[in-house]
Every structure is written in C-alpha cells, then in structure tokens.
Design brief:
The complex is a heterodimer. Chain A is an all-beta fold. Chain A has no helices and 11 strands. Helix content of chain B is about 0%, strand content about 50%. Chain B has no helices and 11 strands. In chain B, the strands form 2 sheets. In chain B, strands 2, 4, 5, 6, 9, 10 and 11 form a 7-stranded mixed beta sheet that branches. Chain B has a 4-stranded antiparallel beta sheet with strand order 1-3-8-7, with no helix packed on it. In chain B, a hairpin with a 2-residue loop joins strand 7 and strand 8. Classes of the chains: A mainly beta, B mainly beta. At the A-B interface, strand 4, strand 5, strand 9 and strand 10 of A face strand 5, strand 9 and strand 10 of B.
Chain lengths: ~110, ~120
C-alpha cells in the first residue's frame, strides 16, 4: 500500500527566502507525481506534474524534482512571496492501485 | 489549465435530508471522475471513482448506498449524500483527469463544504 509523507508539516519563512518542501513515498512504482496548492476552504490547484521518466519540472518560481529510486520528490520555491502562503500537497499515482495517494501536506506561511 | 467546476461551494442541511453535489468538466470530456473527502487539517481520502455510463467504484469502507454517484454524461458527475447526519459534515472535492486516466494531470473542483445540523 502506497504511503506518502510530507515534511515539514508546517513552515514559516520571511518573504524573499528560497525554500524546499519534501515529499516521500513508499512504493517507487509510480506513474507520476503531482504537486498541488490548496488555499483554506478551497479546492486544489495543480502546480506541477512529473512523469516517472522525468527528473524535474519547472514553472516560474517553482521547480519540482523526482527521484523514484529513493522515493522522494521536492518542491523548490524561489524568492517566496506572501501570496505563496497555502498548504502544499503532493500526490503519487500508483498504477497497481489506479489512484492518487496524497501526502498530509505542508502548511506554508510567508511573512512580510 | 483545465477547468473543473463544483457546485455548490457550501451547503447546510438538516439531519435526515439528502444533498446533491455536482462536478462538471467545463472544457474537456471526463470519462472518469473522482470524489474525495477531506477532514480539517487532514489530507484527501478517495471515496469513489465515477465512471461514465457504468457503476461507480467505491473505496473500502465507503457506503455506496449512502454516497450515491451518478456519471450520466461525459462532463457531469454527481454525488448525493443520502439521509445526511452530522458525521457526514466534511469538505468534498471532485477531480477529473483531462485524459481520462491519472497518467495525465488531475484537475480539481473548488470543493463543497457540507454542514449537517
């Protein structure tokens, strides 16, 4: 059974800092891994999707990496802004289970 | 990105009544949609997979008679919480992968906050 863990559970940083969010998964036989952002009381916004054959994806200030063999993915946010404050979720798609398994999320606060 | 619209965004209902939540894919056809439940400060738990033109597939522990799912068209899936009770109060979110499979990017609705009083 796939288990996805995110560390840290919460993070507070001052504006302008670069930061890294971590996601680990127990079953390395994934098809892809997706990073999402969730604002309080809202749905999920897709940030980046990394296929199993890829090592990283970039979108603006965001860069996500994937290391299947070690069961890890990281989301790097450059030059953080207060508007980046949200909960960040990673989710792994495991073909054998045919479903997304979500991590517990990292609650990020970027302060002025 | 693709747009998935969920309605209503919040609903309050009395115990014993039923509530219907709609999930629409606005700019693509979705043969498969997914329904999740999220408790406060917890992650998303998959409830069921909605399949267009056929029965939904429910996750273990989810009562199919209580959470009725209908996927009558390629752009609409509905979740009906029947005979709702306070313990059903939660945040419900639907998802649709553009390509019909989770090999492709998954897009999510805005979520529905259900409060049963």
């Amino acid at each position: 059974k796939q288990e996805v863990t995110q560390i840290p559970a919460a993070l507070s940083v001052p504006e302008g800092e670069n930061l890294v969010l971590n996601c680990s998964f127990t079953d390395s036989a994934i098809y892809n891994l997706q990073w999402f952002r969730q604002d309080p009381g809202k749905g999920l916004t897709s940030l980046l999707l990394i296929q199993s054959s890829q090592r990283e994806q970039t979108s603006g200030r965001l860069n996500a990496s994937l290391d299947k063999s070690s069961g890890r993915s990281t989301l790097y946010i450059a030059a953080s802004q207060p508007g980046d404050s949200a909960t960040y979720l990673c989710a792994a798609y495991t073909g054998t289970a045919s479903k997304l398994t979500f991590g517990t999320g990292t609650r990020l606060q970027v302060t002025l | 990105g693709a747009v998935v619209s969920q309605h209503p965004s919040w609903v309050i209902c009395k115990s014993g009544t039923s509530v219907k939540i709609e999930c629409r894919s606005l700019d693509f056809q979705a043969t498969t949609m997914f329904w999740y439940r999220q408790f406060p400060k917890q992650s998303l738990m998959l409830m069921a997979t909605s399949n267009e033109g056929s029965k939904a597939t429910y996750e273990q522990g989810v009562e199919k008679d209580k959470f009725l799912i209908n996927h009558a068209s390629l752009t609409l899936s509905t979740l009906t919480v029947t005979s709702a009770h306070p313990e059903d109060s939660s945040f419900y979110i639907c998802s649709a992968p553009r390509g019909g499979s989770l090999h492709t990017e998954a897009f999510f609705g805005q979520g529905t906050r259900l409060t049963v009083v």
